Structure formats: C-alpha cells, structure tokens
Amino acid sequence: MMPPGLVSNLQEALLNRKGDSSSNSNAEQEQSTEKLEAVEFDESKPIVLVTNSDGIDSPGLTHLVEALVQQGLYNVHVCVPQSDKSVSGHSVTLRETVEAASAKINGAIAFEISGTPVDCVSLGLSGALFSWSKPMLVISGINRGSSCGHHVFYSGVVAGAREALLCGLPAVSISLNWKKDESQENDFKDAVSVCLPLISAAIRDVEKGTFPKSCFLNVEIPTSPSSNKGFKLTKQSTWRSTLNWLAVSSSRYPTGHFLANQGGLGLQFAQLGRDASAAGAARRLATQKKNLEIVESIGAAGKSDPNRVKKYFRLEFLDNQQEEMDEDLDYRALESGYVAVTPLLLSSHIETDVQMAASDWISSVLLGEL
C-alpha cells in the first residue's frame, strides 16, 4: 500500500490542475561565486535543485525553471550536463576532472557540468559547488521521451532523482512522452503546468515531514499534456525496447544522425538544434566531435597489425509489442492519456517465492561443494 500522504497529494494535484595555480583557481571560483550571488537569495524560502539529462538549452528545463522562478516561492538552483546524457543511466565521472561553468538563467543560480546527471546532483549536493544548505526537493527533468518500465535503468533523468534519494533527499523525475510526428515544443510548457501542482504538494509535505522518505517519484506525462485524463498512481512495468545493433561501414556517424528511436531514448551527436543558441550548439558539436575522435584513436592505439579486423556497429532502440495488460502499469496508463506517477525504491523488492527459489539453489550448490 502507498502512504496516504502520497495518495492525497496526487488527488489534490489533480483537483488543482486546470591550467593555473590552485590559488588562481580559488580566486576565480570566489569571483564566480560573487557573480552568482547577484541572484537574490531569500533565506525564508525553500531551495529547489533542478537537474536534467538533456542539457541547459532543453525546452523542458527552460519552461520548468521559468515557472518555478515566476511563482516566487522558492530559491531555484540549476545543475545540468553540458551535453545530452539521456541514456547515461546511473553513471559517474571518475578519474577525470569535471568542469562546472556558470550559466545564465533569469532568477536562478545555474551551472553546466561536464558530466552525467548523477554527477550534477552529487556535486550540487556536496557543498563544494553551492554554498547553501541542502534543498527541500530535487527535480530531474523535464526529459524529452518517456522513462517507463526497464528504461529507468538506462534513463539519465531518472538516475538524477535516484541519486538525490541516495543522498537522503526527496526527489521527483519528470518525463514527457515525446513522439516525433505528434509532439511540439510548446508541449513542454503544458507539461510544466500539469506537474506544478504535484511539485508544490511535494514541497509542502516535505516541510511537514509527511512526504514518503523511502522512494522517489517518477512522473510520466502523456504526449498531449493539456488533454491528459488526470494523475494515476502506477507500478513499474517490465516494458523495454529491444537493443538493436546494426553493422555499419564507418566508425563515424553521419552529420545530423540520431542514435535513437522516435521515443527519444538516444544520444544525439550532431543534430543539436532544439532551442539551443548558436554558441551552445557550436560548443556541444565541438565537444562531441572531440569525444568521437578520442574513442577512435584509443581503439587502434599501439596496434598496427594489418591483419587485425575492425568492425563498426550502431545501437538503436526498437519498440516492442506490449503484452502486459494491467492498466495500473506505468506505460499502460501513459499511453491511455494519464499522468503516470510511479514510486521507485533504491533497491528492488524480492518476492517471497523468488527469495525461496534463490535460497534453495544456493543451498544446493554449497552442499554440493560447488
């Protein structure tokens, strides 16, 4: 059973919905902090940390932060990846220096991070980047493309919320079920209007101490947000796309190529339009070209054997035919037009029969001395 507070919040949301020295580096960091502090900070207001997996120029982030700032109820801080990390999962950047560059978002203190969504949340909450107490709520999104079923394991936006819960903070991940031939950029603005009541209810009950502490919420908004059928409490399904590897003739991806299906579960290497500025697009393109060159050069480093075989492959996601019929499952509710809200735990719940079966097998193996 779900906590009564969570159910009441969903109901209420539905009702309300209509290269220098270290000293130089420290000096630069202090100067950067002084500039950021120009954004008015009200100690009487709760802090909200916003991250995503699509980058700072994504319309989902832009509209969400704008709406939170306009409400005037929160101190809004933003920490997002420099480039698209939509399928980065719960990966972190280790043994590499992570760059944090200040970004301009009206009414918010914002940074772009040369890492993953998990890096963004972890660094943001560490105390090393922001000089404030921990936020009341972490919001990850709004992502372009759904994150239902087993896609939560690939999803960078879900991982951002999961990392917040790992750090002991309540969190919500939000995704829009973007479809190539149906969706429009303005749908993100409608998606924000849909989820704002739920965000407000979450912050209110975090302050009261009644918000669930053992899970975070994965919110999936249907393709046409303004005509949704309301909020529905759902369960994580076993739905997933098929990982389809295609043999290709070259290690380089053609200009403008998408590594994704229509649902948007992929990395975009060159088609960087979206709503990015020209400078932002150029920066991302340069970064991605550099990354591709590094991957290719490392692959053949120190091995000049002419008989060595090299093959190239490209990964695509292919939608499966769905067989699960339970209307309370996340993707079923989403495709039916509901806003699917799924509580997700840090660890998978193991059913009793599964636990017994595993115990019996382990015992038999150990008794047989392997």
Automatic annotation (TrEMBL):
Keyword Cell membrane carried by entry: no
Domain Survival protein SurE-like phosphatase/nucleotidase as annotated: residue spans: 48-240
Keywords annotated in UniProt: Hydrolase, Metal-binding
HAMAP family recorded: SurE (MF_00060)
Gene Ontology MF term list: metal ion binding; nucleotidase activity
Compositional bias (Low complexity): 21-30
Family membership: Belongs to the SurE nucleotidase family.
Annotated region described as Disordered, given as residue ranges: 1-37
One Pfam family named in its UniProt record: SurE
Entries under InterPro entries matching the protein: SurE, SurE-like_Pase/nucleotidase, SurE-like_sf
Signal peptide range: none
Organism in which the protein naturally occurs: Psophocarpus tetragonolobus
Name of the protein described by the UniProt record: Survival protein SurE-like phosphatase/nucleotidase domain-containing protein
